[in-house]
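Thread: Newbie trying to understand structure tokens

Hi all, I'm a second-year student working on a class project, and my supervisor (Dr. K.) asked me to get a predicted structure for one chain before our next meeting. I've only ever worked with sequences, so writing a 3D structure as a token string is new to me. If someone could post the tokens and maybe explain what I'm looking at, I'd be very grateful. Here's the chain:
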Amino acid sequence: MNSDTEPNLHEKRGEVFPERKNLSVEAADPEHAVLPERNDGIPALGLPEPRADIPAQWLAVRLGHMGDVVLTTGVLLYLGERFDWRFHVLTRPEWMCIFKGHPFVDQVIPFVDKKTIRKNTAHSENLPLVPTSFYRLRKDHKGFGLLDLHGNLRSRMLGLCWSGPVARYPKYGMERRIFLMSKGSWRFKPLRSTTVAQRYALAVLNKAPAAGDLLPRVFLDPEELVSARQTLAQTSSNKASSSPGGTVALHPFASHAQKTWPSDYWHDLVNLLDKNNIPWVAIGHGPAMFPGRPEDLIGRTSLRETCAILAGCKALVTADSGPMHLAAAVDTPVIALFGPTTREWGFYPAGENDQVLELFLSCRPCSLHGKKNCPRNHQCMRGLPPAKVMSALEELRG
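---
Reply by user tm_fold:
Sure, no problem. This is what the structure looks like when written as tokens:
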């Protein structure tokens, strides 16, 4: 490795913080990845040393989607442990339960808008169905800093009227679009070398902590874990005794159809699991994929029940999806199937035993979120056969 591209690492309170580097473009060479500095025109707070002029209380804003919200949990945990900060969180009602039991989150505030009122879902039935007032938020959080982990129009408007310090994470929007248009020919160092959680941390830190220090965390009650174990026992009682490797969770959905693994591949994978007497369970929200099978829990569990079930599993197989981060948040290894999207978007699972299965095709990535229709018959996902996934599972299960 060349000396001018080699990361210069030094120890800081037992953790590794890469030396700050200027934002630059490099050819596609992951070996030369370097953790970035903030160099996008948005001032960071100059931490990681505590300062008297920085508030110890923050309103953290991430309205959605589920995976993005889950990724904030590890960042808030890291900042709370390191600086003794306390947080209020503003998010949509359906994601409030993610922060239950978080040791540094004192209050979760529902963000209510016309969409929430129109839906009037079970998540918001017990909430006052009036739009969230930025004026009220500012008044109720006098002396708080604003930690903007969303960076959309609403959170920026809230920042404009905020009386305290505002810290906003770098989204690297221009860099992502250039990477997309070049089909990965040019890779910006921040895209290749940071997860989204690390980018969240760069809202207040000049140097990104190691990805492993920011893994998401969902805190489950003992009762939730006991109930999940009972559910798993009921779905796999005929196999569990002869399969010490544990249950495999399957999540056959994604936010956009192009990111999903083909339906026939999921059925082929289940046949392989059954053939090898490996217990499995299917989770997620959508139509039942394995009707009549007790292992099919699709549409039958809440978000926290899903987390508890994942905590009782040996691994999760999923596409690029929100439950991928739920599994990471309960220390369950993930085998993630990436097609239209790539690691450079920052949403890949970063745990020690996590795996990303992907094909390096000239057409990848084809979109930022996997929305674009595929003219190549979904080659990026169809090129990941069930046998390959099964091999990864066998390796993981030992």
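A couple of things are worth pointing out once you decode it. The chain has 13 helices and 14 strands. Residues 153 and 317 are 34 Å apart (CA to CA). Feel free to ask follow-ups in this thread.
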